[in-house]
Write a structure and sequence with these properties.
Elements: H1 6-16, E1 24-26, E2 29-31, H2 43-47, E3 50-58, E4 61-62, H3 65-78, H4 87-100, E5 106-113, E6 130-136, H5 143-148, E7 150-154, H6 175-186, E8 191-195, E9 201-204, E10 208-213, E11 216-219, H7 230-241, E12 246-248, H8 253-257, E13 261-266, E14 270-277, E15 280-281, H9 289-304
Parallel strand pairs: 7-8, 7-14, 11-12
Antiparallel strand pairs: 1-2, 1-6, 3-4, 3-5, 5-6, 8-9, 10-11, 10-13, 13-14, 14-15
C-alpha cells in the first residue's frame, strides 16, 4: 500500500480543519478538537451505528431542546441503543457545550455511537456507547436563496423504506441522503426531492416538504417515509394559527408541479422556498405569499422564546 504524501495529507487537514478554539463535549469531558477522538473500532464509525440530533441555538437558548432530546432517545430505543445518561443529564451536557463555546446563535450536534467493539455487526460485542456534543456556528443558505428560492430536482436515490431502518430514526447512516444531495449538485441544482418506493414524494435530503394547493397546506405523513421534523410540526401549528388548513397527504411529483407554492422546513434551513422542480416553475417561479408569511411567523416565534 502506498501512503499519501505528507504534503497532501496536511493540505487536506488544513482545508477542512475545525476551529482549534472549539471545545467538544465527549463522554463527560470538554476538550479541544485535536483531543476529541473516538476509536477506529467504534461501531458508529465502522457501521454508522448510532443516532444524532441537530439543534439550533437562538439568543443563547437551545431551541426546542426537550423535543430534540425526546426524539434522540426514541431513535436510540428503536436501534436497541442505550444512551448512557438520563435526559436531564443530556440537557445539562448540551448547555455545558454551548457555554464552553460562548455560542449565542449557532448549532448543536448531539451524537450517540454504539461504542467500541469487535469487527462484526453483533451489537453484543460493543462496549459502552459514546456521547459527543459539538456546539459551533452554522452555515445557512445565503440570504439570496431565501429571496429567490431553491431550484430542485427529483433524486433517483430513493428514501429508505419504512420497513427497513425507519426514516423516523435519525441514524448516523445518512448515505441515501448524501447520494441524493450529490445528484442535486451534479445537476447544478440546490437540492433534491426524494421519493419512496411507491413513487410518492417524501422530503428533501435534510428537510421536510410542504406544498400549497388552493390555499391549503399539504405535507407527506410519516407513513410515507419521512423524518417527523420538529420544525415541520411547529410550521403546521403556525399555519393553523393563521387559519390555514393543513393536511398530511400522500403526494406525487404532479402535486409539486401544479402547486401554488412549495417550501422546505428544517432545523438549519428553518423555512426556505422552493421555486422549481426538474426545471418546471412552481407557481410563478417566485417565493409565494403564504411561504413568506410563515417565514416571518417562524422568525418571530424563535426570537421570543
Amino acid at each position: 500500500m502506498i501512503a499519501a504524501p505528507e504534503s497532501t495529507m496536511a493540505s487536506r487537514e488544513n482545508a477542512y480543519a475545525p476551529d482549534p478554539n472549539l471545545r467538544i463535549w465527549i463522554d463527560g469531558e470538554i476538550v479541544s478538537p485535536a483531543e476529541a477522538k473516538i476509536s477506529v473500532f467504534d461501531h458508529g464509525l465502522l457501521y454508522g451505528d448510532g443516532v444524532f440530533e441537530g439543534i439550533r441555538i437562538y439568543n443563547g437558548r437551545i431551541f426546542k431542546d426537550r423535543e430534540h432530546i425526546d426524539r434522540l432517545y426514541e431513535s436510540a430505543k428503536c436501534l436497541l441503543l442505550d444512551v448512557p445518561m438520563s435526559k436531564e443529564e443530556m440537557s445539562g451536557a448540551m448547555n455545558a457545550a454551548m457555554e464552553a463555546n460562548n455560542i449565542i446563535d449557532g448549532y448543536l450536534r448531539v451524537i450517540v455511537t454504539r461504542g467500541v467493539g469487535l469487527l462484526g455487526i453483533a451489537i453484543g460485542h460493543t462496549a459502552c456507547p459514546s456521547v459527543i456534543i459539538i456546539a459551533a456556528s452554522i452555515q445557512l443558505y445565503p440570504p439570496e436563496v431565501y429571496q429567490r428560492g431553491l431550484r430542485c430536482i427529483t433524486a433517483g436515490t430513493l428514501r429508505n423504506h419504512p420497513s427497513s431502518t425507519s426514516p423516523r430514526v435519525k441514524s448516523l447512516n445518512y448515505l441515501n441522503n448524501i447520494m441524493a444531495k450529490a445528484e442535486a449538485k451534479n445537476a447544478g441544482s440546490d437540492e433534491a426531492i426524494m421519493l419512496n418506493s411507491e413513487g410518492h414524494v417524501t422530503e428533501g435530503t435534510g428537510d421536510n416538504l410542504f406544498v400549497v394547493r388552493r390555499g391549503e397546506l399539504h405535507t407527506p405523513p410519516p407513513s410515507e417515509g419521512i423524518l417527523e421534523g420538529i420544525t415541520r410540526r411547529l410550521v403546521m401549528e403556525l399555519a393553523r394559527k393563521r387559519g390555514y388548513t393543513v393536511a398530511e397527504s400522500a403526494l406525487i411529483r404532479h402535486d409539486i408541479y401544479v402547486a401554488q407554492e412549495c417550501f422546505l422546513t428544517g432545523t438549519a434551513a428553518e423555512i426556505v422556498p422552493v421555486v422549481s422542480l426538474d426545471g418546471r416553475a412552481i407557481g410563478d417561479g417566485k417565493p409565494g405569499p403564504i411561504t413568506k408569511d410563515l417565514m416571518q411567523d417562524f422568525i418571530a416565534y424563535r426570537n421570543r422564546v
